[in-house]
Each structure stands twice: as C-alpha cells, then as structure tokens.
Amino acid sequence: MKQLIIAAAVAVAAFGARAEATTYTIDPNHTFTTFEIGHMGTSTIRGRFDKKSGSVQVDGGAKTGHVEVTIDLKSVSTGVEHLDKHLESDAFFDVAKYPTATFKSDKFDFDGANVAAVEGQLTMHGKTVPVTLKADRFNCYMNPMYKRQVCGGDFETTLHRKDFGIDAFENMGAPDDVHLLIEIEAIKQ
Q1: Please, which residues bridge with residue 12 across strands?
Q2: Domain boundaries, the chain
Q3: What is the band of 18 on the pLDDT scale with cuts at 50, 70, 90?
Q4: What is the number of other CB atoms lying within 10 angstroms of the CB of residue 127?
Q5: Residue 118: is its pLDDT beyond 50?
Q6: What is the residue-wise DSSP string for the chain?
Q7: What is the pLDDT of residue 6?
Q8: Are residues 116 and 109 in contact, defined by beta-carbon separation less than 8 angstroms?
Q9: Confidence band of 19 (pLDDT split at 50, 70, 90)
Q10: 170 Cβ contact list (under 8 Å, min separation 6)
Q11: Do 92 and 168 touch, CB atoms closer than 8 A?
Q12: What are the tens digits of pLDDT across the range 40-73?
C-alpha cells in the first residue's frame, strides 16, 4: 500500500497542476517495441526491434504532450535469422529504401493525471498513417539507479499492413493485421 501511495504522489508531482512541459528521453534499455502477426492461420510470429530512440514532452497541467520515436527497422529480430532477412527485404520493410519508422504525436489523451492514449502519425515504408496507441499501466517513479524520475507504460495498437503498402503473401493467407506493442520508459531530463 505504501508503494502505491508513493507512486501516486510521484505521478501527481509529474503531471499535477503546474503548467510546464517536462522532457523525457526514451531509455533504450527499458523500452521494447514488439509485434505479433498470424502465420498462415496457424501460429503467431513474434518479433522485436532492438534499436529505438526518441523523446517525450508532457505537460500534465495543460494535459498536452509531444512525442517523437524512431525505430531502426534494420534491427528486426525474430530469433530466426533467415526470417529477419526476409522481413528486411523489399517484400516487407524494404530497409534498403526505408531504414526507419517514425511515430510523432502532439495529442495525448488523459484519464485524470495519467496518459490514457497517444494519437499520432506512424511513417513506415514511405506511407504516413494515423495511429492511436492505447496506454496501460502508465506510471512515474523515482528510479533508484538513475536518481531521476522515470515515466512509462505499455502502449498498443493494431496496424494494417496494406495501409503501408505491404501486402506480401496476402494471397497465401498472411493476415493484414499486426499487433504492435511498445513498452516504454523515459527518463526525465
């Protein structure tokens, strides 16, 4: 119970009544970008992107924010080397032509003091598409290692490959829907 009270106090301090934006830098050691997609109606393929960077600005008093995240698509990792190479090819991410994906947002939705969703634009494979990342377990805490405040949570959405011009193997049963999960922690600057 004491930890819950401390966490609530930190969240209020971070996003309370003061009207001033606070900047956080994404901690690559505690941020994970993963995806899940069905495989021909049987199993689920899961993968991640190992390299990502970006920053978040939040003004809890004004209930506003700004985020920019860049994902290095060449860092895709499924645990299967030949599948990684296939995903990097022009049939999917085409990393030679489009090496990164970016998410930018200036619209944060709040539920009380906490971020509930972030609405923005995802650019990948030469296309920009509106995306809403739903937040879960958003929280702030004083990190004992960094001696600074850290805020983060789990964010998720479902993307449609076709929106980005990626439709490889659709005629063989590969689904259009991709579940994207971003577990993020960002350090106060």
Answers
A1: none
A2: 2-188
A3: very low
A4: 13
A5: yes
A6: -HHHHHHHHHHHHHHSS----EEEEE-TTS-EEEEEEEETTTEEEEEEE--EEEEEEEETTTTEEEEEEEEEGGGEE-S-HHHHHHHHSTTTT-TTT--EEEEEEEEEEEETTEEEEEEEEEEETTEEEEEEEEEEEEEEEEETTTTEEEEEEEEEEEEEGGGGT--TTGGGT--SEEEEEEEEEEEE-
A7: 33
A8: yes
A9: low
A10: 161, 162, 176
A11: yes
A12: 888 899 999 999 999 999 888 899 999 999 999 9
Amino acid at 57: Q
- The number of beta carbons lying within 10 Å of the beta carbon of residue 134 is 14
Residue type, 159: L
2-188 CATH fold: Lipocalin (2.40.128)
Terminal C-alpha separation, the chain: 29
Confidence of residue 2 (pLDDT cuts 50, 70, 90): very low
Between CA 186 and CA 151 the distance in angstroms is 6
Which among 10, 3, 4 is positioned nearest to 149, based on CA atoms? 10
Here the tokens at position 24 are: 């956080």
Pair 187, 25: CB distance under 8 Å: yes
Torsion of CA 128, 54, 100, 156, to 10 degrees: -60
Tokens representing 46 are: 């899961």
For residue 123, give the amino acid letter: T
